[in-house]
Design brief:
By secondary structure, the protein is of the alpha+beta class. It has a single domain, classed as Gcn5-related N-acetyltransferase (GNAT) (Aminopeptidase, 3-Layer(aba) Sandwich), CATH 3.40.630. The chain contains five helices and ten strands, in the order βββααββββαβαββα. Strand 4 and strand 5 form a beta hairpin. The longest helix is centred in the middle third of the chain and has 15 residues. The two termini are 19 Å apart.
């Protein structure tokens, strides 16, 4: 669940697999404040999912994941809250989008037998502290640093932010 900033209400979300045509449907372009999602779809190993409010076609965040069998984890290639849900947006609508996207990746890891292990690179300078606070472990330094969430941290996150599991969108 995500939280409405103004009302404080918990809002149910669902996940739907996205297609490259959804880049145009939801205007997922840099000029609209998004990363370049059209290039993410060009990489065959990426599976891209959108997070929506239940019963609405209102995209709240996007995540691209890859299965890394050799490392037995789900790698997050890219994840992003909708521009209106970002910390720096003056009229931010919802909080918790990023944590719910992380929880989705964690559930995919459990589903594939990887014990909740997920890995990702911190894309911005402040993200490394954020991931450490969530229980991530820095696997390697460099730019960008790579982090992974072990089972214990993953269980805590899904318990706190997605206790009912992944809800798939009906349409």
């Amino acid at each position: 669940m995500i939280t409405d900033i103004i009302l404080g209400d918990k809002i149910e979300v669902c996940i739907r697999k996205l297609k490259k045509s959804d880049v145009y449907k939801y205007n997922l372009f840099a000029k609209n404040g998004w990363f370049k999602w059209n290039t993410i779809f060009d990489e065959e190993e990426n599976q891209v999912f959108g997070m929506f409010l239940i019963g609405k076609d209102d995209l709240q965040g996007v995540i691209a994941i890859q299965e890394h069998k050799e490392n037995q984890l789900i790698h997050i290639e890219l994840m992003e809250a909708a521009p209106v849900n970002r910390l720096d947006h003056p009229e931010r609508k919802y909080t918790g989008v990023g944590k719910n996207l992380l929880c989705f990746a964690i559930y995919q890891s459990f589903e594939l037998g990887y014990d909740g292990y997920i890995g990702l690179s911190a894309k911005r300078n402040f993200n490394d502290r954020y991931y450490l606070k969530l229980g991530a472990i820095q696997a390697r330094g460099g730019i960008p640093p790579y982090f992974y969430l072990p089972t214990r941290s993953s269980i805590k996150l899904v318990h706190d932010y997605m206790p009912g599991g992944v809800q798939w969108c009906r349409s």
